[in-house]
Structure formats: structure tokens, C-alpha cells
Design brief:
heterotrimer; A mainly alpha (about 270); B alpha/beta (about 240); C alpha/beta (about 260); B: about 240 residues; alpha/beta; Rossmann fold; six-stranded mixed beta sheet; three-stranded antiparallel beta sheet; 8 helices; 9 strands; about 25% strand; C: about 260 residues; four-stranded antiparallel beta sheet; 10 strands; about 40% helix; globular
Chain lengths: ~270, ~240, ~260
């Protein structure tokens, strides 16, 4: 903990992340405007006292769209990473613990999954299914678990040789107990780092999908589709692009910095 | 007979060739005995211990165990306890698996037996010293009421004053509960202190077996004699440099 | 004649909880041609004391005070260049772990020759002869073959003998032995201890012998200092300390050793 506090960038990143989280949760209180309500009288107005981030071509308030959009983008980030972690931990733990042909088959499966260019895989699947928020969460999660699986497998390969695992076996613990109660809690540290970095990645992916029009569909706001709206009016209405862009930039950057800081802390220190 | 091993063989293959970890080992341990297994590194004693515990399978040979109630105490107190579990959970795990009742009460009794304070229960292993962790490991082993226990170098990692404490604790527990014990060590002095019988291992074979009294006074195999000479080389009963 | 004098040595250690005084005002002296033993359990500060003599302490440890007088100079006040002239030639050290003492990517011979050439400035061929001569002196059979071997090809006992050869090759005035046999098998321990005894007597070396094993220290040393929690709590001639220990800690240490004999 103390070490973390010394890393000023990491603390700043954490503060920013928490701030965005608070914004997202308190969305209705923060803005007076319904993100979906249009106002034909204030179309494409620049930032002003009534609309601090300006309005879009339908007269919707950008600030409220961004704050509500934070809910969507963050939710997708967290849940996609949650799904990826669940899949990755399960596969990694089973491969690492049982070894042999199970390990071989599972790791070849990981290799195959890694061969697909993720973005095209997602594009293909989304075009077949409808681009709902849930589908996006699931598909991003289902294509991002491979790194976690390898990390968990590596940890478990070393952990399972340790005496406390042999002691548990002699104690009569079943495989499920050993994996769930002993191995996974001790293998979780690198997963936390990976997951933190993964949230940034998931947010970026969602933004890309929404920007391309196959992610979150309007009128539901997401940072990506606000960007999409701004494409056509970039020359005249810079605020439609700059504000969501900055939010994406700083949010993803913060998760990356936080993830790196966590990795530095959990790196094994020099033995005495 | 609590344990009977017949012609156990275990080979490990690596890029360097095949290692005969166990090359035809037979032994018998009687009920209530404290049986010592001594040898230097690489002789196969730990492999034999793991095979008897069922952690490794032999390539050939037979083992007969009179009981299923077997427990173990390992060498490295820094590795034999789950670092993420509280002492209470570590101790009660065996009872939970067996769905015993009175878990809390039995855990407290064990704390008394291994002389640890009640406050230890909510702490984590890293908050304890090596000797204290070994007490926790012994408590964990004894709590499930074993009839046979394998102790694999249980005091080798400890300072000498603590070694004596832990050995005395093991002695006391073994006498009181009548547990049959296989005591593995490279240290002949420790074996002499705690065991009734001893088998000497060298390169995967047992070269000599006998009661502690016989072996230590009149060993017959040259390796045993070399071990004894080396082990008691620094016998300070002679009061220092000659 | 005093060859080494340590005065009021203090070494700090930075740990997560704060700063620990791992060596607390330690003073002792070693006479020429004598073997001085330091006994203590783990954490007593004996290894740190030995490393401090050659200023081999690095973060999280740091030398906080005191002096180490050798040949009229305070080693703690020397700069790196001057210290390099002392380490490995005037004072050498044999560590506990034969496995990690040698660089795995160079042969034993290359490393011993490097030690010779760095300090004696003789040419490679003469250095090689000298190295092989010393390998013989530590009773390594087939010294020529071992010279060309890599560390991983050697057994623990042979590596430790090679380490001892490397420590002696520049005819040091003082040799520090830090648990030289602890990591070895029992039968090999006895052999290496015999070797050390023989060499110490033949070459009339001055030795600082560190061990947790009272039995070994009492067999090898003329004088003993008992360390506990960073301090020397008792010292004296070996016979005196063994027959008439004055501190309670020393007594309990001796009791434990005797009980297991």
C-alpha cells in the first residue's frame, strides 16, 4: 500500500478512475438534461453555460451523453473483463493442474484462439448477431481470455509443486477443493494486473465498435458512438469529437497506469 | 505391521539419462514404532516418503498400509502452509473435509498441545517464525487423529535450539497418541534422538537396517560407518579443538 | 600480532516494518595465524558482519558506523578501487552456496585464472599453472579436467574445494569462511572440514570462521564469539567457552547441541 502511494502517477490514475466511476453512478443527479432528449432549437451549439460540453446535431446535451455513456462504456469494460477472467482462470487452472493431454489440448485451443485477429472476429460475430450491449460484453470477453489463461496456468504449474498442496492432498482434499481453495487464491495476483490493463483495452474495443456503427446503437450513448456522430461535423463542431475522445484517452491511460503500478508492486522483491 | 514395502522401484528420466531414485526398496514399520530413514541428498528417502504417502506412484513393487489415517509434516515451514489461509482454516481443513463436529473445540485443544496461543488462529503463516509454523504444521497433522505419520526432515530448516523444542514436541505427541512414525532426515544426530529403528539409504537402496542402539554402536555397512563418523565428527563432548 | 580489528561495527537493514539494527556495535580482533569463530543462529548478524569487513553490503542493508582496521587502514573508508585491491587478494571469502558462487557461463579454470590475473598481473599461462597447482592442493583429483569443467558439471563438494582454491590462490592474509560446509552432504562436510584444517595448519592462515554449528566451530577455532541479535554476547578461547559458558543463551545453545550428540 505504501509503495503504491509513492507512485504519484498511479495515485493520480486511481483518483481519475474513481472520479469517472462516481460520475457514471451519479449521472442523473449531475445533469439536468435527459441524454436522449432532443432540442431542435439548440442544434450544434458550442460549449456554453447551459451546455458545458455543447450539443450535437439533434440538440442533445453532450455532457449528459458523456456521463451516461460512461455507464455503458465502463460497464462493458468491467463485465467483458469479468467474463474473460472467468474463462481464463478456469481454463488456465484446469490445464495447469491436470497437465498431460488435457493441458496440451487446452493450450492448443488457446493457440488457435490467439491466431484470430480479434477485431475481425468480433466484427464477424457482431454482424451475425444484433449489436446489443450484452452481446458486445460477451464477445469482447470471449475473445480476450487467452492471456489470463496462460498466466494462471504458469502460476499453477509452480504452485502445485509446493508442499502445502501436497499437504492438502494427504489431508484428503479433492481436486476441486485444491484448485478452488488453494491454487486459485494464490495465483490471482497476475490476473489482477492483467484484468486492470484489460479494462482499458475493452473500453477501447467498445469505442472502436461503436465508432464503426456496430457497437452500442443510438440513442443509447456510449463514448464511441458520440465520436461517430462527430465525424461528419468535425470541421464545425470540434466539441463532439474532442470531449468523448479525451474521456476515452484519459480513462484508458489511467487503467494502463494503474495496471503497470500493480505489476510493479506484485513483482517479487529481492530476497535477503 | 503398519507399513510394508516390497521391492519398490521408481525411475525418473531426464535429458541426462535415467535416475534410479528407488532401486528395489523393502522395509517394514511396526505399529507404534518411530522408524528413521537416513541418507544424504539424492539417496531417495524423500521419494520413498512420497510414495508411502501416495503422492507419487512407484514404477513397480508393492506397498501395504494398515491404515488410511495418514498424515505428513514437511521440511520447509515456509512452504507447507497455504500463505493465503488463516491458521484457523489451515488447522480445521482436515476436519472440514471429514465433516467432523466440534471443530472449534478440537482446534483449541490442538493449540494447547503444540503450545501456541489462541491469538494465532486469526493470523497468517507469514506472521510466524519457522519454529511456530512447524508447530502449526504438526498441529494440522495431528488434529485428524492419524495412526501413521510421515515426517520429512521436519527440523532441518530450523535453528538448533528450536530443533530441540520441535523434536521434544514430536516425541511427546508420538508417545501420548501412539502414532506410528516414519522420520526422514539426513541428520544422524536427530535420528538418534527420536527414533527406535533406522534404515540407511544410499543411491536408491537400503544398505542397513536395525535398531538405533545396534546401528550407532556397531554398524556393519561401510557407508553407515562413514555417515556415523561424519555426523559425529564435531562431537563437542570432547570439549573443543584437540 | 593483530591482523584485523573490527571496532563498533553497526549495520542497518531496511525492512517493510522500518529499520533494524542487524549488527549492533560489534567489536573483535583476529590474531595472525589464528582461527576466530563466530557462532550464532539465523538472524544473529554473523554473515552481515563478515560481508561488512569487505564492504559487500548493499541495499536494503547499509553500514552505519564503526571501523575495520586491516594493515593499518580502515577498510570502510576506502573507495571501490582500493577495496578491489584488497578483495580476493589480501582478504578473500568463501561463501556457503557452492552453486551460486561460481558464474555458470564460465569454466572453473577461467574464473580462477581471472582472479589470479586481476591481482598478480602474471600472464595467462603462468596463471593457469598456478590455478591447477592450487586445485591439486585442495585434493581435487584430475585437476586438469576440472579446470576445464563448468560449475554445473561438478559436485557440491568439488565446487566448494574449487572455491577454497580460488580463495587461496593469491596468498591472502585473511580468509573469511562463511558457513563453508553447511550446504554440503554430511560425509562431504567432514571431508571439506578436514581439508580446511589441513590447509589452515600448513599455510598458517588467519581465519574468520562463521557458522551456526557450534560443533564445527569448536573443532576448527582457537577463539569463539557467540552472536545473538546483532551483538556479541560472549567470547573467549574455545575450551573456556565450552566448559564454562557464562551467558544463559550460550548455555542453552550448548545444551541443545549436546542433547543432539
Amino acid at each position: 500500500m505504501r509503495e503504491f502511494m509513492r507512485n504519484k502517477m498511479a495515485v493520480a490514475a486511481l483518483v481519475f478512475i474513481l472520479a469517472v466511476l462516481v460520475f457514471a453512478i451519479l449521472a442523473p443527479i449531475l445533469t439536468g438534461y435527459d441524454p436522449a432528449s432532443t432540442d431542435s432549437k439548440s442544434v450544434l451549439t458550442p460549449p456554453s453555460r447551459e451546455h458545458i460540453f455543447g450539443t450535437d446535431r439533434l440538440g442533445r446535451d453532450i455532457f449528459s451523453r458523456i456521463v451516461y455513456g460512461a455507464r455503458i462504456s465502463l460497464a462493458i469494460g468491467f463485465i467483458a473483463v469479468g467474463i474473460a477472467s472467468l474463462i481464463g482462470i478456469s481454463i488456465g487452472a484446469i490445464a495447469g493442474y491436470y497437465g498431460g493431454s488435457i493441458d496440451y489440448l487446452l493450450m492448443r485451443f488457446v493457440d488457435i484462439m490467439l491466431c484470430f485477429p480479434t477485431i475481425f472476429l468480433i466484427l464477424a460475430v457482431i454482424s451475425l448477431l444484433e449489436p446489443s450491449v450484452v452481446n458486445i460484453m460477451v464477445i469482447i470477453g470471449a475473445t480476450g481470455w487467452m492471456g489470463i489463461a496462460r498466466l494462471v496456468r504458469a502460476e499453477i504449474l509452480t504452485l502445485k509443486e509446493r508442499d502445502f498442496i501436497s499437504a492438502a492432498k494427504v489431508m484428503g482434499a479433492k481436486d476441486s477443493r485444491i484448485i478452488l481453495k488453494h491454487l486459485i487464491p494464490n495465483a490471482i495476483a497476475p490476473v489482477l494486473v492483467s484484468a486492470t490493463l484489460g479494462v482499458g483495452g475493452a473500453i477501447l474495443t467498445e469505442s472502436a465498435l461503436s465508432f464503426l456503427g456496430i457497437g452500442v446503437q443510438p440513442p443509447t450513448p456510449s463514448w464511441g458512438n458520440i465520436l461517430m456522430d462527430g465525424r461528419s461535423t468535425l470541421g464545425v463542431a470540434w466539441w463532439l469529437t474532442v470531449f468523448p475522445g479525451l474521456f476515452i484517452l484519459f480513462t484508458v491511460l489511467s487503467y494502463n497506469i494503474l495496471g503497470e503500478a500493480l505489476r510493479d508492486i506484485s513483482e517479487p522483491r529481492l530476497k535477503e | 505391521m503398519m507399513v510394508k514395502c516390497e521391492d519398490l522401484k521408481k525411475y525418473f528420466s531426464s535429458t541426462a539419462g535415467t535416475v534410479k531414485a528407488l532401486d528395489g526398496v523393502s522395509l517394514e514399520i511396526g505399529k507404534g514404532e518411530v522408524f528413521g530413514l537416513v541418507g544424504e541428498s539424492g539417496c531417495g528417502k524423500t521419494t520413498l516418503g512420497k510414495i508411502i504417502l501416495g503422492i507419487i506412484r512407484p514404477d513397480s513393487g508393492r506397498i501395504m498400509l494398515e491404515t488410511k489415517k495418514v498424515q505428513v509434516v514437511f521440511q520447509d515451514p515456509y512452504n507447507s502452509l497455504d500463505p493465503k489461509m488463516k491458521v484457523l482454516d489451515i488447522l480445521s481443513e482436515g476436519l472440514l473435509i471429514r465433516r467432523s463436529d466440534n471443530i472449534d473445540q478440537r482446534v483449541e485443544e490442538i493449540l494447547d498441545l503444540v503450545k501456541l496461543p489462541k491469538a494465532a488462529l486469526c493470523k497468517y503463516p507469514h506472521q510466524f517464525s519457522g519454529g511456530e509454523r512447524q508447530r502449526i504444521a504438526i498441529g494440522r497433522a495431528v488434529l485428524t487423529g492419524p495412526e501413521f505419520m510421515v515426517c520429512d526432515e521436519p527440523v532441518s530448516s530450523l535453528d538448533i535450539t528450536i530443533q530441540l523444542q520441535i523434536l521434544n514436541l514430536l516425541k511427546e505427541i508420538q508417545k501420548r497418541l501412539g502414532i506410528t512414525c516414519l522420520f526422514i532426515s539426513h541428520d544422524l544426530k536427530v535420528i538418534k534422538f527420536i527414533c527406535d529403528k533406522v534404515a540407511v539409504m544410499f543411491r536408491g537402496k537400503i544398505v542397513e537396517t536395525g535398531s538405533v542402539g545396534d546401528i550407532y554402536s556397531s554398524a556393519r555397512h561401510p557407508y553407515t560407518m562413514a555417515l556415523l563418523k561424519a555426523a559425529f565428527y564435531d562431537n563437542i563432548k570432547n570439549n573443543g579443538k584437540e | 600480532m593483530t591482523i584485523l580489528e573490527v571496532k563498533n561495527l553497526k549495520v542497518n537493514f531496511d525492512v517493510p516494518g522500518g529499520r533494524v539494527l542487524a549488527v549492533d556495535d560489534v567489536s573483535f580482533s583476529i590474531e595472525k595465524g589464528k582461527v576466530f569463530g563466530m557462532v550464532g543462529e539465523s538472524g544473529s548478524g554473523k554473515t552481515l558482519t563478515a560481508l561488512s569487513i569487505l564492504k559487500l553490503i548493499s541495499w536494503p542493508g547499509n553500514i552505519a558506523g564503526g571501523s575495520v582496521i586491516f594493515n593499518g587502514r580502515d577498510l570502510l573508508k576506502l573507495d571501490e578501487k582500493e577495496l578491489r585491491g584488497v578483495r580476493g587478494s589480501r582478504i578473500s571469502i568463501v561463501f556457503q552456496e557452492p552453486a551460486s558462487s561460481f558464474n555458470p557461463v564460465f569454466t572453473i579454470g577461467e574464473q580462477i585464472v581471472e582472479a589470479i590475473v586481476n591481482h598478480q598481473g602474471i600472464d595467462g599461462y603462468k596463471a593457469k599453472d598456478l590455478a591447477i597447482e592450487y586445485l591439486h592442493r585442495v585434493h581435487i583429483h584430475e585437476a586438469g579436467r576440472i579446470f576445464c569443467n563448468y560449475p554445473h558439471q561438478l559436485s557440491g563438494g568439488t565446487k566448494q574445494r574449487a572455491m577454497i582454491a580460488m580463495a587461496l590462490v593469491n596468498s591472502p592474509e585473511l580468509v573469511i569462511l562463511d558457513e563453508p560446509t553447511t550446504a554440503l552432504d554430511v560425509t562431504i562436510q567432514a571431508q571439506v572440514l578436514d581439508l580446511l584444517k589441513e590447509i589452515i595448519e600448513k599455510e598458517k592462515l588467519s581465519i574468520l570462521f562463521i557458522s551456526h554449528d557450534f560443533g564445527i566451530v569448536s573443532k576448527m577455532c582457537d577463539r569463539i564469539a557467540v552472536m545473538r541479535k546483532g551483538r556479541i554476547i560472549e567470547r573467549g578461547g574455545t575450551k573456556e567457552v565450552l566448559s564454562d559458558p557464562k551467558e544463559a543463551y550460550t548455555v542453552s545453545l550448548l545444551e541443545s547441541v549436546k542433547a543432539l550428540s
